Amino acid sequence: MDNLREIESNRAKIIDLLKKIDYSKNQIREYEQEIDSIEFKLKLSEKEYERYLNNLKEIEEGCKKLLDDLFDQKDEQEKEQYDLRNNQLQTEIESNWKQRKIEEEKFIRNKERLNKTKEKLEILITTQQNNIDKWSTQISKLSTINKELNDSQSIQVKVTLNYEENIILEELVKMSGTNK
């Protein structure tokens, strides 16, 4: 009777562990989806940053070309007008450079934040996987115990045989080699 109680208790533990494993697998899937989302955001952020830098580069090149043209026309323009236009172009180039630095810092902060989140999720996945492995081992041990308990379970019945039945039983034991 004790074996049956222990077997039932082990079955309940196994069911509980299987539920935990299922929950952990679901968590891992969710974490992996979040990691995929983060990787997508990183790629998108890099593309946007590259596009932004290209736009700034085009503006800078345009300003430099205008500066070169202005320098070529220096003799034709009055000094005051030349200085004014030169200052405007230099200010625009400097503004673009500052904006580039701001965007670069923003991009780097965003990338670091996303990478930290990704690392945390990878740690959570590893933790969940370790839990699954631990619980699988526990299930295996409990299953082995239940199997042994089932195999060792026997019912002993005490029977009194008469003389003839006892002789027949002895002959059967001699023929089969066992009394089971």
Contiguous low-pLDDT stretches (5 residues minimum) are none
Using only C-alpha atoms, the radius of gyration works out to 41 Å
State the secondary-structure class. mainly alpha
Kindly report how far apart the N and C termini lie: 21 Å
Order of helices and strands: HHH
User: Helicity, in percent?
Assistant: over 70%
Overall pLDDT score: 85
Strand content: under 5%
Largest sheet: none
**Which of globular, elongated, flat, extended, rod-shaped describes the shape?**
rod-shaped
- Helix run count: 3
How many strand segments?
A: 0
Structure explained in plain terms:
This protein has 180 residues and is an all-alpha fold. The chain is 88% helix and 0% strand. It has helices at residues 2-72, 79-152, 163-176. The model has no long low-confidence stretch (mean pLDDT 85).
Topology at a glance:
Elements: H1 2-72, H2 79-152, H3 163-176
Main attributes of the structure:
3 helices, 180 residues, single chain, 0% strand, mainly alpha
Compose a concise summary of this entry.
The chain has 180 residues and is mostly helical. Helices cover 88% and strands 0% of the residues.
